[in-house]
């Protein structure tokens, strides 16, 4: 149809395969087996009686034969052999005969003519309704000498597991079905979006929102470019769960689970075990340096302990010197903290004396930060009395480096005003939330929600209900705009109403009705909006507008903030 033209994959028509005489429930089980390497027929039957299960598994067996899935054939036969009984053998025999499933039919025949089963089956009402050819065949089989015939042990049980199939798919078969190219330091690796998306939330987010038009993705792990061998090991883990790799690959991939967003820490646990089992006196220094460079804190701690406990003091000193050695030109050229540009600092007011000028607006801090960047460059510092000296970074590349260097337990400046309120007013509360914690305490809370947050299927559940809020917001905009299609001066409050409605729906599963017409000033939603706006304004003034005298004695602004926060608690 398209000739020799190269058509983007997304523009190609969806391939449709018609399965003649396939039972939908049976095909769903086959599809589930293809994806998971497991099969459970009871999940697909609303009323799981013994007879229904037998008939369903016979349909699955027929599809397995049709699709040349030998391992699934064996599983179906094994399941049927353990399920077929005196009560359902004739039903299975009739169905196997109609579907031409000769192996199953032969098993049912042998089961029927057994000495212990024959009389009971022949005297049953089901036997009376059996098709005449099958009756005759059973009676003749009973009269014949019982010779040893093919049994289930002679069934060809060869076949491959899901892991084996995926390994072959990655190496050979799957190359003609690739739809994305991963580039590592100039080397191209063909891959498959569906598999990468299923295994890594990093690729899922990229392919949903930031997919390059040429379907080429450059691979790094943070700032680190892994070796080709280690990346091949990573692909083997993604495709077929293989964790066999040399120790040097484990060091490269130690931080990969965090960066790519795997659903569990199996790869990291293996990498740690692999490294610990293979750290020797010959490579411990190199592993320590590499662990420090990629912020593999657990491995760094293990290497340091190994040096301290197993090497003489001189060796430990040499190791420390090696770790502190300037290994890159970037580090050699780094300036001292005192050389970071910024305004001169003075007693009491520090270097932030712009806050006392008319041009300063605490509600537009980004403009102040922009002016600093234009005046002093992408990295500058300023001093606010009562706070640690702050460094402002406006270069995205440098910002990424800072976040990558945080490690597992980042240290974040907390919101002092909110912490003071909760310490003074909320007795008995041990945990103040993510905004007011850092380090190990922060990670303990974060780890509990990280995996659910990284799964897009959890977010997709909210799309239908969130869409109703979006539709209400659009209708609200249409209702309040003037004849020139411009919004009123109170439009910011409408945005707050939309935000509150969305947050309540996700966090509390409740619709507050913020967007339905005019919201009275004394209504609870509007009071919450007013309190939130006041909270942010007061926090900005207290945190950034001059010395923190409120830490010594309660200021007027601090009392106002406490009153606003009290309204939330009440």
Q: What is the topology?
A:
Layout: H1 24-36, H2 50-66, H3 70-83, H4 89-99, H5 102-112, H6 118-122, H7 125-128, H8 132-143, H9 162-171, E1 180-184, E2 187-191, H10 193-199, H11 201-209, E3 216-218, H12 228-240, H13 247-253, H14 256-260, H15 266-278, H16 284-293, H17 297-310, H18 313-324, H19 329-332, H20 365-376, E4 379-382, E5 390-393, H21 396-404, H22 416-425, H23 439-454, H24 456-460, H25 463-480, H26 491-507, H27 524-544, H28 556-569
Parallel strand pairs: 1-3
Antiparallel strand pairs: 1-2, 4-5
Keywords: Kelch repeat, Monooxygenase, Oxidoreductase, Repeat
Organism: Artemia franciscana
Domain BTB: 178-247
Explain this structure to me?
The structure is a single chain. The protein has 570 residues and is mostly helical. It folds into 4 domains: 24-154, no CATH class; 162-278, Potassium Channel Kv1.1, Chain A, CATH 3.30.710.10; 335-405, no CATH class; 456-569, no CATH class. Helix content is 55%, strand content 4%. The protein has helices at residues 24-36, 50-66, 70-83, 89-99, 102-112, 118-122, 125-128, 132-143, 162-171, 193-199, 201-209, 228-240, 247-253, 256-260, 266-278, 284-293, 297-310, 313-324, 329-332, 365-376, 396-404, 416-425, 439-454, 456-460, 463-480, 491-507, 524-544, 556-569, and strands spanning 180-184, 187-191, 216-218, 379-382, 390-393. A hairpin with a 2-residue loop joins strand 1 (180-184) and strand 2. The protein starts with 23 loop residues before the first helix and ends with a helix. The model has no long low-confidence stretch (mean pLDDT 80).
